[in-house]
């Protein structure tokens, strides 16, 4: 046992834990340690998501500056903002996060939908996004959800993602009936697919889904 | 599929809402035995006791309005200690459990996410684990009705939410006493995620006698001493407040294994000429008043009503949790300078005492309260443990120097050397 005169305490350590003064120079054996020697390298904070957000914001700010100085009559910066935001979401949520597949599919469909709507609205709003691109994107998302249902037993999070995906599928139809979209058949395909998925859940959903629902919704 | 589930108790909901990488809300209780821990035997002991504690052997599940706990059927494995105490629990590597059983040399540690239980519940689990371990090691020990035995069935009173049981349901007027913002300790954040742990080990009986000599309790004595040493670095006018968790089982006849505690903030405005005796008198007086049964009852009622309101219940958690985080960071955490949890004298069966050297408790620090303190005594040996997420150790150093000066007790200091930049022992 070593003694630190300055702190008036005894310690097994060779360096005083309170004032960091060297008390002895002989290395203690492992069996005398109070705590293990740590591997601190593995404990570094995750920086990639923050770097991505910082880089994204920097690019957007730089582009706003350049756009306003050089070409203020044509605001191309909105294309950049949408694309950079999509890239950051894709990196942080789709690639780096530990979210399950269903959540990543919904995240991709939702963010790509917003990006397509932004690009269309900024380029004269020819309605190609809401007439064709978004409905087909949603159908693609539904196909991926269906494949994940067929290939592995669905857990709760899978159900939630599917429900969100189904809810999103009625967006094109809503846009058509509100007069924003002008072509019906892509929207109808997305809605029909969503209805079929609802029927599929009604017939094949595991009994535990209903038990889980009562727990998940308790107040 | 597990068919047993539990709502998170009234206090546990708060910890769950607030936890993140900087605020793990994971605390540790440990017993240091007299001989090296045998991993195989510890695993056997754990396998035999886990079902005795159904509210601890659970997984966290997501809900829309509240998350909840579900029975976990995975095997809970003991782990050799590798990382720092109170590290956040990684659900991917813990098989979904919110608890950890860790061993290192002679020490068995139980770490638990605070949403599941408080210090008393955790200590009951640890006592049963150590009892079963010693039995399997063929030690001649007896439970003396002081241990929850693995073969017994858990009673309904052990799994109840005692806040709901003991709250006056119609008392809608209980208002939390408004507290002034307290002095906030700040410092240099440690280089890597993790906490520095410093233990001070001493004769608990002698320290208790010393506190009694001042006509006060050990908790009041330690609180006053903390306030005194914190005041050395405090130049403002805010009070220095120590948050003291109060075990409600001592005032209400609960046997729950879940959270059942209140927090009493004891704040003192320290001027240049305030001496230790004056601080001690004020702390002792406030402690008596804040831990009186009527005061605690009001706290339970307030806490219950806060979460019983329909608006609180029907707001989805993605809106509710950020609001709770804001309240915690900007109101709750601002009213304390530090937390001190004194578990008191933990009683073991006489026959077990020979195999247990001492115990310790490590309480997580938080981002706004970067130093926490916890104390516990077993077999007359008391361990006061500081956990720090900052590099500066002045407060801890001053505390032990002052404790030694006031009491003359021999103090042994150990640490996990987290703040020492990998310096060797």
UniProtKB/TrEMBL annotation, chain A:
InterPro entries membership: DUF6320
Keywords, comma-separated and alphabetical: Membrane, Transmembrane, Transmembrane helix
Any Pfam family hit: DUF6320
Coiled-coil spans in chain: none
Keyword Ribosomal protein: no
TM ranges: 51-70, 76-93, 105-126, 132-151, 158-177, 183-205
Protein name: Uncharacterized protein
UniProtKB/TrEMBL annotation, chain B:
This protein's UniProt keywords: Transferase
Record-linked Gene3D superfamilies: Chloramphenicol acetyltransferase-like domain, Nonribosomal peptide synthetase, condensation domain
Domain of life: Bacteria
Stored SUPFAM superfamilies: CoA-dependent acyltransferases
GO MF terms, alphabetically ordered: transferase activity
Matching PANTHER family: ALCOHOL O-ACETYLTRANSFERASE 1-RELATED (PTHR28037)
Protein name: Alcohol acetyltransferase
Organism: Salinicoccus cyprini
């Amino acid at each position: 046992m070593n003694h630190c005169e300055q702190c008036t305490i005894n310690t097994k350590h060779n360096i005083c834990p309170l004032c960091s003064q060297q008390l002895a120079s002989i290395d203690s054996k492992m069996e005398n340690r109070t705590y293990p020697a740590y591997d601190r390298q593995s404990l570094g904070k995750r920086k990639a998501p923050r770097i991505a957000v910082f880089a994204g914001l920097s690019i957007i700010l730089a582009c706003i500056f350049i756009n306003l100085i050089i070409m203020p009559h044509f605001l191309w910066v909105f294309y950049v903002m949408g694309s950079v935001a999509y890239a950051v979401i894709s990196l942080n949520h789709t690639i780096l996060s530990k979210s399950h597949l269903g959540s990543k599919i919904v995240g991709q469909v939702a963010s790509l939908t917003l990006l397509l709507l932004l690009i269309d609205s900024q380029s004269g709003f020819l309605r190609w996004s809401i007439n064709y691109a978004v409905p087909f994107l949603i159908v693609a998302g539904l196909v991926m959800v269906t494949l994940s249902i067929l290939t592995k037993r669905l857990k709760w999070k899978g159900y939630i993602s599917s429900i969100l995906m189904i809810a999103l599928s009625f967006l094109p139809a809503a846009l058509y009936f509100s007069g924003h979209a002008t072509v019906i058949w892509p929207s109808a395909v997305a809605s029909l697919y969503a209805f079929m998925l609802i029927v599929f859940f009604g017939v094949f959903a595991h009994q535990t889904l209903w038990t889980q629902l009562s727990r998940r919704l308790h107040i | 599929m597990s068919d047993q589930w539990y709502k998170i108790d009234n206090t546990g909901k708060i910890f769950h809402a607030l936890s993140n990488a900087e605020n793990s809300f994971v605390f540790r209780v440990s017993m240091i035995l007299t001989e090296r821990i045998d991993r195989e035997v510890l695993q056997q002991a754990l396998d035999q006791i886990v079902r005795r504690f159904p509210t601890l052997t659970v997984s966290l599940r997501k809900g829309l309005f509240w998350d909840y706990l579900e029975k976990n059927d995975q095997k809970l494995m003991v782990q050799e200690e590798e990382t720092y105490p109170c590290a956040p629990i990684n659900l991917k590597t813990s098989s979904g459990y919110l608890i950890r059983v860790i061993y290192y040399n002679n020490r068995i540690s139980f770490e638990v996410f605070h949403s599941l239980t408080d210090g008393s519940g955790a200590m009951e689990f640890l006592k049963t684990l150590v009892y079963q371990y010693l039995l399997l090691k063929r030690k001649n020990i007896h439970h003396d009705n002081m241990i929850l035995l693995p073969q017994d069935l858990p009673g309904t009173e052990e799994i109840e939410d005692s806040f709901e049981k003991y709250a006056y349901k119609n008392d809608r007027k209980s208002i939390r006493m408004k507290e002034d913002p307290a002095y906030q300790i700040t410092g240099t954040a440690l280089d890597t995620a993790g906490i520095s742990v410093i233990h001070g080990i001493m004769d608990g009986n002698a320290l208790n006698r010393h506190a009694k000599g001042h006509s006060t309790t050990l908790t009041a004595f330690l609180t006053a001493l903390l306030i005194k040493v914190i005041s050395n670095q405090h130049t403002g006018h805010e009070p220095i407040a120590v948050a003291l968790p109060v075990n409600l089982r001592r005032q209400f006849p609960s046997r729950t294994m879940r959270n059942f505690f209140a927090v009493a903030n004891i704040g003192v405005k320290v001027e240049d000429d305030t001496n230790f005796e004056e601080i001690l008198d004020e702390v002792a007086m406030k402690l008596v008043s804040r831990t009186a049964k009527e005061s605690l009852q009001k706290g339970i009622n307030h806490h219950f009503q806060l979460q019983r309101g329909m608006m609180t219940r029907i707001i989805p958690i993605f809106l509710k949790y950020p609001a709770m985080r804001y309240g915690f960071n900007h109101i709750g955490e601002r009213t304390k300078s530090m937390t001190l949890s004194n578990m008191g004298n933990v009683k073991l069966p006489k026959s077990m005492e020979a195999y247990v050297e001492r115990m310790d408790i490590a309480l997580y620090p938080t981002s706004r309260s970067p130093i926490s303190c916890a104390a516990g005594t077993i077999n007359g040996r008391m361990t006061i443990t500081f956990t720090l997420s900052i590099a500066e150790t002045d407060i801890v150093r001053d505390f032990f120097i002052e404790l030694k000066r006031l009491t003359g007790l021999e103090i042994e200091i150990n640490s996990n050397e987290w703040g020492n930049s990998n310096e060797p022992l």
